[in-house]
Design brief:
Elements (H helix, E strand, L loop, with lengths): L30 H14 L8 E2 L1 H8 L3 H13 L3 E3 L5 E3 L4 H25 L2 H19 L5 H22 L3 H9 L1 H11 L5 H18 L2 H29 L29
Antiparallel strand pairs: 1-3, 2-3
Helix pairs in contact: 1-3, 2-3, 4-9, 4-10, 5-6, 5-9, 8-10, 9-10
């Protein structure tokens, strides 16, 4: 992208805030699909927090797009349950209530415990090696001192998701996959929140290693018990971060457009005021 392309029609920097050059939309996908995908990724990664408002004008300026694809992207996010419409014609990231979080983890505990028990019967040796590879890559990422915290968090989150989804697929159970898929967006949001707790990564990787041992030994009872404990620990990490996020969340009526993060993962406070068309 040239220096001219980085500016909007008013000469302002389009990549200000959390929007980087790599996130600028490009063909062949439609603008609305690309914007939808990028916003969804930011929501699932907890880069945009529950309760924050999404302003059409600010997002349109960031992507150098008209309001039409922005509205279309917002509607897709609404269908996913990731944003909700406000009475004053805006949208905000849906909040997760405490009881909702507890219910979800209870359901996850049942589904994933059953899934890993089923995987003990059906998983193939090459898939166990895949799990080991994912675990090893995550451990290397965790041990690295050269990677910024936010980048490390994103990669740990990705490895965590890959690990669990590999177990799901190894069951060859379409019905189990469908049930888990219905929870996927909320699970990913909570998983991204949970990995932000210091110390949670090491504990999760240790539990992943023990799950691999259970799968290799075809020990259904131990695998199911460990997975239930793994999910309970994950809920504990999420709730500690959820309480923190709730305390630091935007005040009622505050415009909380996505903001740029510095190398420490802290958010810079200022946002651009949106101009009315």
């Amino acid at each position: 992208m040239t220096e001219t392309e980085k500016k909007d029609n008013g000469g302002n920097d389009r990549t200000a805030g959390p929007w980087t050059e790599s996130e600028m939309v490009r063909p062949p996908n439609s603008l609305s699909d690309q914007i939808y995908g990028l916003l969804k990724k930011k929501i699932l990664n907890s880069e945009i927090l529950p309760g924050e408002r999404l302003m059409q004008e600010e997002v349109a300026k960031a992507f150098n797009a008209s309001r039409t694809p922005i509205r279309q992207a917002f509607h897709l996010l609404e269908k996913d349950g990731l944003v909700e419409r406000l009475p004053q014609n805006g949208f905000r990231i849906t909040r997760l209530e405490l009881e909702t979080i507890k219910d979800l983890f209870a359901i996850r505990g049942v589904l994933e415990a059953y899934g890993v028990e089923l995987a003990c019967e059906r998983i193939e040796p090459k898939t166990i090696e895949t799990l080991r590879s994912i675990r090893d890559q995550a451990q290397q990422m965790l041990a690295s001192s050269d990677i910024p915290r936010e980048s490390k968090l994103r990669r740990i989150f990705e490895f965590n998701s890959q690990f669990h989804e590999t177990i799901y697929r190894s069951t060859n159970s379409r019905y189990l996959m469908d049930l888990i898929s219905n929870l996927r967006n909320t699970v990913l949001r909570l998983r991204a929140l949970g990995v932000r707790k210091n110390g949670s990564w090491k504990q999760a990787l240790n539990e992943h290693s023990r799950l691999i041992d259970c799968l290799e030994q075809r020990d259904k009872k131990a695998a199911g018990k460990l997975m239930r404990r793994h999910i309970a620990n994950a809920m504990s990490h999420v709730l500690s971060q959820w309480n923190l996020a709730d305390e630091k969340g935007p005040r009622k009526g505050e415009s909380a457009a996505p903001r740029k993060k510095d190398g420490t993962g802290k958010r810079k406070g200022e946002t651009n005021s949106a101009k009315k068309d």
